[in-house]
Design goal:
By secondary structure, the protein is an alpha+beta fold. It is about 25% helix and about 35% strand.
Length: about 120
């Protein structure tokens, strides 16, 4: 997929989004046009809002940068991928992932905290 590039991103209401906006309504976030130069194809993709919940940003910098260790099963590949993308670091000695507590809170995985390291 490294030969596919996104050339255009449209917001709801802009040309190229009207039909999709009728289908998906307010859940439509954007429409992207991607081009595959090897296959000579254009793809239209959409981004949809699929969940909404209240969120509070961290109240102090100290809380934002506080780290914790969390346990994630070896079979939970998707969750591992997501926490790695959020900056998690594997600690082989503790057999746990080190991650900012704010990220843990945002991902709603606080029940997985095993060690609070400050």
């Amino acid at each position: 997929m490294d030969h596919i590039i996104t050339k255009n991103v449209r917001r709801p209401g802009e040309p190229g989004t009207i039909k999709l906006q009728r289908i998906y309504g307010d859940d439509l976030v954007c429409v992207r046009y991607k081009y595959d130069y090897k296959k000579k194809k254009r793809y239209k993709t959409i981004e949809l809002l699929v969940d909404e919940k209240d969120w509070e940003p961290c109240s102090t910098d100290q809380y934002c940068y506080k780290r914790v260790y969390i346990k994630i099963g070896s079979h939970e590949m998707e969750l591992q991928k997501n926490i790695k993308a959020a900056g998690a670091i594997w600690n082989a000695e503790k057999k746990a992932w080190k991650l900012a507590v704010q990220v843990v809170r945002d991902m709603d995985i606080e029940d997985r905290i095993v060690i609070d390291i400050g």
